[in-house]
Every structure is written in structure tokens, then in C-alpha cells.
Amino acid sequence: MDEHVRQALRRLPGVDELLAHDELAPHLDRYPREHVVEALRAALETARGRLLSGEYPETWGEITSVPTIVREAGRLLESWARPHLRRVLNASGVVIHTNLGRSTLAPAALERVVEVARHYNNLEYDLEAGVRGSRHDHVAELLTRLTGAEAALVVNNNAGATLLMLAGLAGEGEVVVSRGQLVEIGGSFRIPDIMRMSGCRLVEVGTTNKTRIDDYRAALTTDTTLLLRVHTSNFKVVGFTEETSIAELVELGREWGVPVADDLGSGALVDLPAFRDEPPVTASLRAGADVVSFSGDKLLGGPQAGILLGTHDAISRLKKHPLTRALRVDKMTLAALEGTLQLYRDPAAAVREIPTLRFLDRSPAETEALAAELLAALEARFAAAGLEAPSHVEPSTARAGGGSLPLLELASHAVVVRPGPGVVVSLEAALREASVPVVGRVAQDALLLDVLALESEELPLVAESVAWALARSRCMPDCDPAPEVDAGAAGGGADA
Fold first, then answer.
1. CA-CA distance, 113 to 146, in Å (whole number)?
2. Of 461, 464, 443, 447, nearest to 389 (Cα)?
């Protein structure tokens, strides 16, 4: 080891010396002493590693200084105390963003969650009879009234619903499905794999682009226990194609005494222009499908859940299956789903109150006005901080996301921020470090902030985070720009 490095290492202060430093007093007031000591030791280890690297010896005096190590310990304490699952501002232009938690809940749904989570409740207690009840009953009647289904069951997500549907209805028999519908969704969830896990046997019919009813008919045997249609909600095959309708499958199923299941994936309960190519849930039920499954947190705009609708016989068989307990939902999911579904009693209220539906139904005039509002907020923040970054509003193309509506392009608007040559990458990284992170898009050395999935009250907070990140990006990695405002101080509180 170089003698200069040894001397620098000897200058590193001890933990006791650091604990006595005035700048550490606020941390000792705020955090347990053992946490502060742990942070100081980690900060010392970081400083020791920088010295041993041998780089930049002209900064070794600063690296070994007490204030530098105390500040590093303070940053560590703050990062350890910060929740890992955090709020993010979605300026990506993807409404149902799987990585960002998919659909955000309507205020009415949030109210139901808070009410149920804060108090004891009748999750599995029949208040009328005074005996044990079933958690499956709380949203079943509401779902059947809204859709016309005979019965309903809710599990933890649509992947679970599909697994239960196959295990409960097909057993160890043969399930006939089109080759063009052997889809893979996120997380390597593949229909053939889930069939093997459920115990049934896959029978592929037709081709990738064309499957006719005669293909299904030719595959039927005495071992056939289910006909399955899987809606290709995350991709489309276009051109020379042909698909068997759910009505045709139901007719064939009744002829052979075989149940028919329809895995819709996304699931739409209202009529929006954005849903023009999406098969409605009610259409599958009217066609006579024994079971229909779809997600609660995609086009429905509610919490993560797998919703199963169908006949009394089919749903009863699923409720009795052992997997149902393993896949059951908790009280908060049921509360959020009930609060969401209640809004569907009035379709206009659903579109107005459920964020996912409202965002997907926004007009270009609305997004242009929101983008202009965001631009004004950004320019004000930049001016207050003495920052310069040419910015303007331009039309953009947004997406539904979440494995839904793959061909849909939504007309939107974005604020384009040009921070300067080579700065946009560090700006995007700094935005992820902000107290309230912002996720946008990077293109052609610019940051694009699409407003389609932003609330009006969130725009000042976006501007605050972008201004902070711009200052941070221009002096990375060794500076600390002025602290940001609290998440609620710019009109973007937790309930926004």
C-alpha cells in the first residue's frame, strides 16, 4: 500500500469523534443511536474504499473530513428510512403501466379501503344470520348485477383465475385451444405451462393465424373436458387471419356437453372509443360462456384481482376447489374492488371517477391544456432556481399499456425539456432519485413528459421534481441541490 494512502487512512476519524460532531445532533434526535452508529460505520467504509482506490488524491482531505462523513451518514439514514414502495409520477404516456402499479384507484375505492382496513369488519361473518359467512359474497352480487352473470368469484389476479379455471373445470382431461392463442404474458406466464401445472392436457388446433370451428370439432374426444378461448390482449395477428367466435365455441360445447371458458385478460365493462376492438365481458356471457375471466387492475381500473364470472354450476365447482383458498383475496382488495364496481352502476360516473377510464378517454384538447399548464409550472420553477432548459409543448402518442389494447395509439401532448448536450441521461437518472420520482421518456437528447396519465394537481409536483433533478444532473455526482418541497406542498398530496 502506498504511504500516502496509509496516511490518508490514518486521518479517518473514529465513530466516537463523529458522534460528538454538531452536525450529527439532528440525526441523533431523529433516529435510534444504533442506526446512527451503523450509518457512520458504513460512511467510513465508503471513505476507506475511495482512498484505497487511489483515485483523485487531491480530494483525500475532503474524503476524510468529519463533515463529509457525517453528511454521507445522513444520506444513508434518510435512504434507510425512506419507504421502498413509493409514489411515482407517471409522465411516460403509458396509462396502465405495469412497472408503476397499473391502475390507480378512484377516491371512492380508496375510502372503502381505509374504512375496512382501519376497523374490524364482516369479512367472513354473516351479519344477518349471526354465523360465519364467506368473503366471496361481498362483491358477487354486485358483479352479477353489472354483468348479467349467474355467479361470480374473485381471486388474487387473472393468472390465478386462469389456473383455477383450468384445474377446477378441466381436471386431468384435454383442453382444446387455438395455436394462435397460446400466449405469454408478463413474468413468463405461458398458457401451455399453466396447463401442465393445472394437471390438464393441452390440445392445439388450427394455425397461428387461422383457426376454424371445424378444427375444434375434429379435436374433440371423450377425454375433452374444456374448450378454451384466450383473448390475445397483449398482441395482435393482422392480415390473413380467421378466429372462431365465442358463440361458435359455446354451440359446439353444448353439442358435446363440454364447458367453454373465455380468458379475456383485460376485461371492459363500459363502452369507450378506446375499447372499440376489445371484446366486452357482457358479450361473452350473453354468448353463453360457462366461465369468463379478466383482470381487476387493467381496463376495469380497480385493484389487482382475477374476476371469474359464469354459471352457478361452473362457479360453484371453482369455489369448492382447494386452490381457491390459496388464491383468495384479502379484505383491502375486496374493499377496493367493491368501491370501484359501485361506480359502474352509473357508466358516466365510472368514466368520470375512475382514473384509468378518465385518462383513456381524454381528448387532445384536454392533454394540450394540461401540457401548457405543466410548461408554465416548469418555467416558473426553472426561473426561481436560476436554471435554463429550453422547453416546449408538442403532440405525442400515448399507449394503454398493461398488456391491453396493443394496437391502440392515444393522441396526447408532452412537454419536451432539452437540458443540453449529454445531460438528459443524468437528468433521467436524477428524476428517479427525487423525493417524488418522475418517470418520463427520453428521445433525441430530450426528456418528454407526457401528461395523459397525470392529474392537474400533480403538475406543480412534477415541475418541482424536474427542477431539482435538473440542478442535480448538472453537478452529479458530488453535489446536493436545494431540498425539495414535501410531496403534499405543491398540491400533489398522497390522495391526488
1. 21
2. 447
Give me the CATH topology for the region 89-99+360-473: Aspartate Aminotransferase, domain 1 (3.90.1150)
The CATH architecture to which 106-353 belongs is 3-Layer(aba) Sandwich (3.40)
Helix, coil or strand: residue 126:
strand
Taking 3-state DSSP, the helix, strand and coil percentages for the chain, each rounded to the nearest 5, stand at 45, 15, 35
C-alpha cell, 438: 418522475
What burial class does residue 234 get, using C-beta atoms within 10 Å of its C-beta: 0-12 exposed, 13-18 middle, 19+ buried?
middle
Side chain identity at 335, as an amino acid letter? A
User: Which carries the bigger pLDDT value, residue 389 or residue 237?
Assistant: 389
Among candidates 248, 284, 249, 261, which has minimal Cα distance to 169?
Answer: 261
Confidence band (pLDDT; 50, 70, 90) for 1? Answer: low
Q: How far is 233 from 304, CA to CA, in rounded Å?
A: 17
Burial class (CB in 10 A: 0-12, 13-18, 19+), 3: exposed
Per-residue cell: 83 = 419507504
Please tell me the distance from the alpha carbon of residue 450 to that of residue 427, in angstroms, as a whole number: 16
Instruction: Provide the pLDDT for residue 475.
Output: 67
CA atoms within 13 A on the CB side of 43: 29
For residue 407, CA distances in Å to 12, 266, 410, 450 come to 60, 14, 10, 19
Instruction: Yes or no: say if 396 and 414 are a contact pair by the CB < 8 Å rule.
Output: yes
Please state the pTM of the whole predicted model. Answer: 0.87
Q: How far is CA 266 from CA 149, 177, 229, in A?
A: 17, 19, 14
Residue 319 CA, chain-centre distance (Å), reads 28
- Residue 369's contacts (CB-CB under 8 Å, 6 or more residues apart) are none
